[in-house]
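Lab notebook, bench 4. The sequencing result for the construct came back, and we need a structural model before the next group meeting so we can plan mutations. Quick request posted to the team channel:

Model the 3D structure of this chain.
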Amino acid sequence: MMKTVILAGGRGTRLSEETGVIPKPLVEIAGKPLLWYIMKTYSSYGFNEFIVAGGYKCEKLKEYFINLANTTNDLTIDIARNEIDIINKKVENWKVTVVDTGLDTFTGGRIKKIKDYVDDIFMLTYGDGVADINLGSLIDFHKSHGGLATITAVRMPRFGVLNIDKSGKVLDFQEKRIEHSPFINGGFMVLSKKVMDYIQGDEPFETQPMLRLIDAGELFAYKHEGFWHPVDTIWDKRDLEEIILNKKVKLWKD
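Done. Here's the predicted structure in token form:
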């Protein structure tokens, strides 16, 4: 099975209400870290090996996974013997490698730093967005074109439409989904390890490396018209939380 790399090292400054003490991927959505939702999506398709490329407050990521079994199950604690028994043990079938890729490293640099942890083909996504993407179809598409890189193209989930009169007064405001907006990179990538040859040192993967891949005819886009939701601000967090709590979307298959 392919390994999945999750870029989880950014500072998350636009979500500073939450990220002062934890990295953005650990921001909780309806009681679970954002990272958990991303990993559940992958594991529902049988992808259970993860490389988490940390940076900002990387120690918190390590603590989360070290303590995951103890914090999500009932425990019997024998204080005198310093022993802990997990009751009705229910744990995710995940193997997680947390790599400290540097505090201020760009995404391209982080990818280069996990080179020794991935095989010839691997998956990559960001630690701050979820989607109801069909990963099987994504991988089939990647195999079909024979290129080195596949990104998932998505549309922005919604935007605010203002109804303004001639005087400039706002008469109405409505949130609407952008049906015909331009596609953007939503993460959920499938990459050949050879992609790292297109990254020159520490640089954002989304800039010159992608342009080099385009020039070489090696970058393809899988179009996902379903649900996709980034979490960049406190408003994004609250919006996704409302969606999750009200079961408006199913992020992974059973």
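The chain has a mean pLDDT of 89.
Will bring this to the meeting.
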